[in-house]
Sequence to fold (421 residues):
Amino acid sequence: MKRSLDQWLAYQLGTHPQSIAMGLERVRLVAERLQLLSLPCPVITVGGTNGKGSTVAYIESIARASGCRVGAFTSPHFLRYNERIRIEGAEVSDADLVSAFEAIEAARAEIPLTYFEFGTLAALFLFARAGLDLAILEVGLGGRLDAVNIIDADVAVITTVDLDHQAYLGNDRESIGFEKAGIMRAGHPCILGEKDPPSSVLRHAYENGVYCIRAFSDYLIDRFESHWVWREPGFSLDLPYPQLRAPAQIQNAACAIAALRASALSIPDDAWAAGVAGATVTGRLQCWRTNPEVILDVAHNPQSVAQLAAWLQMHPKPTVAVFSALKDKDIADMLAQLAPHIEFWHVAVLSEPAGRVLTAEGWQQQLSPVLPSAGYRIHADVASAYASALAENSGQRILVFGSFHTLEAVMRLPQPEAVGV
Fold:
């Protein structure tokens, strides 16, 4: 019997005993059977701790504004699995995904694949048949052993390197940087989006003949009141400020421009500004509701929370939080960074993913050393936390953050005044 998309996704959760299994051997062998180890178009692979999704959005938007036919693979999704794979800016259909999964299932035979590996192969399967001018692949976790790394990138991008997923990537920036650097390829450029990348990244590039293009060194950013300028020796662009509002979004846009400049694509002058102005991405300081003001942000590690804190400081307003995070995140750091900007915390117990959530008692242990007892309340779920924030609101801004799971739960609720990014 033919499976629906939902049935395929449920099935994939059981085809490998682990939800995350690092390594390329299995997924590479299936890709080889499907003749997917290369794509018939240039590929830009985007890795890093934070800013990956936004950088993909800028690359996609600029390339499409130039007339290119573009495919983009990102993760995770919020409401629909289809969000992960876009062709020409549109989510692929259920039917296309089902066709891809059927082909992958036939090819894998005895080889176990994870949920993410199925999705990566589906993106490659659909991109190979779409007549693309550019494919953009976002790393899911790390880089060196991530499934997208079976493809040799024409241009690699490492946005930032910071602490996250330490159980898989290591406990310091140098170890994590080594994993991120694995997406580099000898003889091809790599864009480094931060001013001071770990030495492990630079060493890997030097040892493997990778040409690094570094932010604040090989390309520069000048900010003015009405616009900003991207420049490198002999070339500059006057650009509008993006819709995406976090301070780091200028760096993400600049990183995307550097990646396209390093590619073989020809971008007309007017496409740069149009692409920067038109880029959108869900859950990055997204205004979800206007009365009261509700802001959604996926910040879930120290570096991204620092960006959120900077935005709150730049836009002061009484703010309450609807917050939850997975227990393997640095929750104490999140609380410490944002406590000065938050008047009250509605903290939610998540129900999934299994094994990575805190109970109400666990949350009490996390919160009590950092916040005053009158400054927070623990709720049974995100819906209850959000409902309380709305019901008790007297003109404050509501900030929903801490995890993709937290935002997804709010986004699935009825939102009579919901607005776009």
